[in-house]
């Protein structure tokens, strides 16, 4: 089990206060890492830090802002002296204008360019900048593990039928920016793995499936039927995979995409 031990390692998790982010922080802390809990909402990051038993500290971070990333880097290095693990988990889903029909606005024909740009700014550029700022510190030390969180929708296209209710009414569409952005993350991971392979920095993708978060009953049923295990994920389902990718147990693994989706993409 020493291969999974992260004692004395410093781990950064972006978007840490989100549904999956909380579980990832807990897992890394439970494995022994000092966790920098980074989120744009400092109060939520501080609350999560207070709930984690092992060493952790909150960091206010906007992944789209280079100065914010540099300030966070300096704070983390001041506190721990090193950066060993980076989990790029920060991401957004579309928030539509409630004054118009969500069904209409989420359709490709009417999808606003502003939402496309905002999604790419956080989900893609935010990952790029985080790797640039934090990953470069790893490359200087010739050691590190970067985990870019993508999605099953970075591998396959959205099945729009799962967004139909029990009466067959389309409630909304999964819009184009999220799958396009997550697909970009998968290949950006391959680029960076090749670029930093000779620096001892491993870069892998973690592609989770959908997580249960109180969604409508019809959606949960539709989604679950498409998985081999017959259910949506729980946040804790991603604890083991993130520790595996962060630790020396995956020391010969880079440029890979670890898919943890209950079998969604396997048939």
Structural overview:
- The chain has 267 residues and is an alpha/beta fold.
- The protein has a single domain, classed as NAD(P)-binding Rossmann-like Domain (Rossmann fold, 3-Layer(aba) Sandwich).
- The chain has eight helices and seven strands.
- It has a seven-stranded parallel β-sheet, sandwiched between helices.
- The longest helix has 29 residues, at 113-141.
- The mean pLDDT is 96.
Helix/strand layout:
Blueprint: E1 10-13, H1 19-30, E2 34-39, H2 42-51, E3 56-60, H3 66-80, E4 85-88, H4 102-106, H5 113-141, E5 144-149, H6 177-196, E6 201-208, H7 217-225, H8 239-246, E7 257-260
Parallel strand pairs: 1-2, 1-4, 2-3, 4-5, 5-6, 6-7
Helix pairs in contact: 1-8, 3-5, 5-6
CATH architecture: 3-Layer(aba) Sandwich
CATH topology title: Rossmann fold
Strand content: 5-15%
Structural class: alpha/beta
Low-confidence stretches: none
Major sheet size, sense and barrel closure: 7 strands, parallel
Mean pLDDT: 96
Q: What name goes with the CATH superfamily?
A: NAD(P)-binding Rossmann-like Domain
Give the class-level CATH name: Alpha Beta
Order of helices and strands: EHEHEHEHHEHEHHE
User: What is the number of E strands?
Assistant: 7
For the structure shown, list the relevant keywords.
267 residues, Rossmann fold, single chain, 7-stranded parallel sheet, alpha/beta, 8 helices
Short summary:
The chain is 40% helix and 14% strand. By secondary structure, the chain is of the alpha/beta class.
């Amino acid at each position: 089990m020493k291969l999974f031990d992260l004692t004395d390692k410093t781990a950064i998790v972006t978007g840490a206060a989100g549904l999956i982010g909380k579980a990832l922080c807990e897992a890394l802390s439970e494995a022994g890492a000092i966790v920098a809990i980074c989120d744009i909402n400092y109060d939520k990051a501080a609350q999560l830090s207070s709930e984690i038993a092992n060493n952790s500290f909150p960091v206010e971070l906007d992944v789209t802002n280079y100065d914010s990333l540099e300030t966070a880097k300096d704070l983390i290095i001041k506190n721990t002296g090193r950066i060993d693990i980076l989990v790029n988990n920060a991401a957004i889903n579309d928030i539509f204008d409630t004054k118009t029909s969500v069904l209409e606005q989420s359709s490709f024909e009417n999808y606003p360019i502003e939402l496309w740009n905002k999604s790419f700014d956080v989900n893609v550029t935010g990952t790029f900048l985080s790797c640039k700022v934090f990953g470069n510190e790893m490359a200087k030390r010739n050691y590190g593990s970067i985990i870019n969180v993508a999605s099953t929708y970075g591998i396959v296209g959205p099945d729009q039928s799962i967004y139909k209710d029990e009466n067959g009414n389309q409630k909304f569409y999964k819009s184009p920016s999220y799958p396009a952005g997550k697909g970009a993350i998968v290949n950006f991971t391959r680029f960076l793995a090749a670029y930093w392979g000779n620096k001892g920095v491993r870069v892998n993708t973690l592609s989770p499936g959908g997580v249960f978060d109180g969604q409508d009953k019809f959606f949960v049923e539709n989604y679950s039927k498409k998985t081999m295990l017959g259910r949506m994920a729980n946040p804790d389902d991603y604890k083991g995979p993130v520790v595996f990718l962060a630790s020396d147990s995956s020391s010969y693994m880079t440029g890979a995409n670890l898919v943890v989706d209950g079998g969604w993409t396997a048939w």
